[in-house]
Amino acid sequence: MRTVRLFSAALGSLLLGALLWTGGALGQAQRFAPLGPLPPVPVPPDNPMSAAKIELGQLLFWDTRLSGDASTSCASCHDPKQGWGDGGKLSRGYPGTEHWRNSQTVLNAAYYSKLFWAGEVTSLESQADAAAAGNVAGNGDPIMMEERLRQIPEYVRRFKEVFGVDRPTISMAWMAIATFERTLVSKAEDVPFDRYAKRDQSALSPEAKRGIALFQGKAGCVQCHNGPLLSDESYHNLGVPRNPEFESNPLRQITLRYQHVTRGVPEKIYRSADRDLGLYYITKQEIDKGKFRTPSLRELKYTAPYMHNGTFETLEEVIDFYNRGAGDDPNKSSLVKPLGLSDRERKELLAFLLSLSSDHPLIVEPPDLPGYVALK
User: Fold this and answer.
1) Which residue among 125, 145, 170, 288 is least packed, with the fewest CB closer than 10 Å?
2) CA distance 362 to 85
């Protein structure tokens, strides 16, 4: 069922592209999915949306009791006021650890078929589980977290209403959180580029319109950033510079080496661990070292810093990096080459990238959480 919905959405995007962009400013090579507004959010048939489930998921998203020491919630690393990331170059990690990757925004995460920087999971439900239970993220024991939920009468009532059960289960908690996250999406009416795509010529400046042509032409961004999500969801090595945090922070080094060991990296590589190996953790193929999933370009205005290790603070730095031909790495993608963009062209490209963000950031205020009650 989900496949049918995704195919229909993709077909709709293709038809939209054929209608709007033929011979126009958005014309592009046919081998790339056309740019355009996002389709309806794909919803798995085994976890349908409902208002009550969204409300429950919002509570759980902010509840620190879904972690090991009850100090860390989803919102700790995905703060609405930080673009639904944590605002840092590298994520904070569970107390006593320091994470090795940038905390990605959850805005529009509902559209990804693979989540995390290396695509380790394939659904928002499994992402919530992996984050809350992961040893360097939430570090929560599933049985302990489940028992906490069962001693909160308001949650017992809400789980009964939403799932029809007398006792909350942790898997249902992940389903509720994923349902809430499927509401955190860009609205076409709020995004200048999307308004332009719907034939509002005044939505973009002349500078941004020229940026679209660069994006799809001379700059070649569309090779990896295409379709409504502006991501091919594939994996590429760009030779991104190392984050110097690894050179000076022992906790970062410990956490990275822990990642190497738990993901089955050979001892020789583990002993000299000095960088995130990306897709290699999954495939163990040399060619996949340093490859990361292409992130969406939507909401860039609110989601700095950028790259898997947060090494760039501004979009200007990102554009300059690509203009130089990206970095140096034996596995660097053949798609990235020096661009030769002038100062004016870099500004035009930036204007287009900024047009992919909503006029105002999506802010959701933290809810009041229900309390424990001792069982009789």
Assistant:
1) 288
2) 12
Q: Which of 201, 211, 195 is nearest to 358 (CA)?
A: 195
Q: Which amino acid belongs to residue 286?
A: E
Q: How far is residue 58's CA from residue 362's CA, in Å, rounded to a whole number?
A: 14
Rounded to an integer, what distance in angstroms lies between the CA atom of residue 317 and that of residue 89? 14
Going from N- to C-terminal start, the domains of the chain cover: 2-41+188-240+291-354, 51-181, 245-288
Q: Which CATH class is domain 2-41+188-240+291-354?
A: mainly alpha
- Collapse the DSSP code of 39 into the 3-class scheme (helix H, G, I; strand E, B; otherwise coil) and give the result: coil
Helices marked H in 141-205: 142-150, 153-163, 170-181, 192-197
Among the listed residues 227, 188, 231, 202, the one whose alpha carbon sits nearest the alpha carbon of residue 359: 188
CATH code, residues 51-181: 1.10.760.10
- The token pair at 348 is 């035009």
Which pLDDT belongs to residue 30?
56
The H-or-E segment that residue 208 falls in is helix 206-216
Average pLDDT by stretches of 10, the chain with 376 residues: 41 41 44 94 98 98 97 97 96 90 97 96 97 94 97 98 98 98 98 97 98 97 97 97 87 90 88 88 95 98 97 98 96 96 98 98 97 88
